[in-house]
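Case study B.
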Amino acid sequence: MMREIIERASEDEDLSIALERAIESYMDSRVRVLSRYPYITELAKEVRRIKELSIERIEELIREAKDSMEENRMNVHIAEDAEKAREIVGDLVGTGKIVVKTKSITSDEINLRKFLQGRGNEVWETDLGELIVQWLDSKPMHFITPSINIRREKVAELIRRNIGENVDKDDIPGMTYAVRRFLRKKFIDAHVGISGANVIAANTGSIFIITNEGNGRLCTSLPEKHIVLAGVEKIVPSLHDAFKVSDVIMKYAGYSAASYLSVISGPSKTGDIEKKVVFGAHGPKEVDVVLLDNGRLRASRDERLREALYCLRCGSCQYLCPVFRLVGGYWGGDAYVGGIGILWNMIIGNYEEAKAQSLFCLGCHECELVCPMGIKTADIIREIKAEYMREMGLD
Amino acid sequence: MKDIISIIKENEKRYLNPLGLDKGTIVRWAKGMDLVRSETVFYTGGLYQMVPYIEKFASIMEKMYGISSTTIGIARLLSRAKSLASLVPVGNTERYNKIIRNIFTVLRTRINELGYLWEDDIYSGALYYDLGLNRTFESHIKVVSDIMRRNNVKKVITIDPHTNFVLRELMPKYTDFDVEVLHYTEVLSDLSIKADGYVLHEPCYMARWYNLSDKLCSILNGVKKPKTSGTYTNCCGGPIESLFPKIAKRIANNRLRELRKISENVLVSCPICLANLSRAGGANIVDVGEVIL
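Model:
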């Protein structure tokens, strides 16, 4: 079945054109950004060391981050697995609410949108690419560009069908503004905003969120309640470290600097009337942080899979992988796609799928070459293949 | 998939290579040549010799995929055949034997005592490693290292990037035998090959290990490069050809589309790239070994 899906994807002309357009554009941006900021390759090496040390001390950093966040009046919840995380977020949201979300692969990992919808909530993805994925009832096809597989013609059709605005297929700004108008009301009416985190500083309990569209700021500031769902591997020791990680993520995603870097360290508050602190001045009254394990702590002790916890999710390896260039996110897994997706599926316990998908890896090592963290994805996948061959009784 | 792995393993057991080439087929390139035994050896690993068989095997698998009973039937036929030689006419192998002869001829002008191991010129085991057949690879590479030791080999000159990688990178890790391994482009740095009109497809294992691609480019005069080249060269898809020939072919198509923007004449330097890009079709794929003289 999996082989059929991948072979069918390889024959899809629309997919091929969409991927070619997006990848060409990324390649040009990457070359431009990396040559304009030559310091970034050295900074990437430093960030690798920061991530290595962070994963080494992961349990200690979780405790430190929790303490710092609680000090800042954030509520912290530790979820050992996907089910527990859904339960926590589900209880925090309740039912009959309007929920706006930023793009979050971790929320895709636990299938959060559908879970909340199933509890009678109206949930909206507010990243344009993720909204396209939501309308298609599909899955994200890339870490940074979830709708990388969709051509503009299809996007125009989706907007016409879902918003009712008659947009032109060649008018990409027109399509973008139609979505802006549509989502504006959702932001205003939303009871809850859900975001992920690109990086978390343990010493200050600060959540870093990188976006270009500005949806991240609206999701995390307009609703009364903000829920952060983040994997525990996102925690680094200090605020200073977190800025370094953010810079590397942005550059390797192909941007000089993303339009928005939000640093959230607590609920909105004011003390302007007689120094009496009141929460929820303009932004959220409550901030809840759900730190998800779901196999990450086990992986931190696994010499092989630990590498994948260093992943910054910049998507470089996906753009440049020849298999991904052919079939996009149809290869890898559900939330985590491409070669790095195979490693992440092993982390979150989708062993069988990960092992079967590993056979499609070419072992060309281009992923390792372009990864700012130098993750040895191809070598690890080869070991996963070996495990599969042994288990199948073939070696 | 299980059938294909079974064929590969059965062939390893009988012929010490995944496609079941017999020793006569592997050493045919040297027929009539006066080759000595020496401490410095020319090692083919049989990979160029395999190209017509890889093409044949992949095309059978591609056609038969989806008709499971036929696939199994073909698989059994292949595994029972005395060797794959019967499926590929001898005439079709000459092009690849000539590539080997050409490279050897040029090398012999630089190395006085360049020897050959004849029947001991066996496959490196690269595919087993790539497929994750660790035990098969480990036992195979021990055979290779035993051969090297028995023949008192001190230096190996390889002619393809996969054999080079296995002997240079993996053999010291998996056996207690370490030997100096060089790719032929490292020995021929003073060469100047006329390559005007060609676009170069650099193989992954030359571009990303030991700067072999730089050595290759330095001896090719006038060759052009596509947008993704050098360290960032794009794979031809060949490594998954044995399991997923359709996907491998489409990856090759993608790569060829990029290469053909520069030229219809594509220069390669790897038997796997030669096989997979040729199978995709639509361009004139030529190995460096064909223009080296």
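The interface with chain B takes residues 3, 6-7, 10-11, 16, 27, 320, 322-323, 325-327, 358-366, 369-370, 382-390, 392, 394-395 of chain A (CB under 8 Å). The remaining cases will be described in the next quarterly update.
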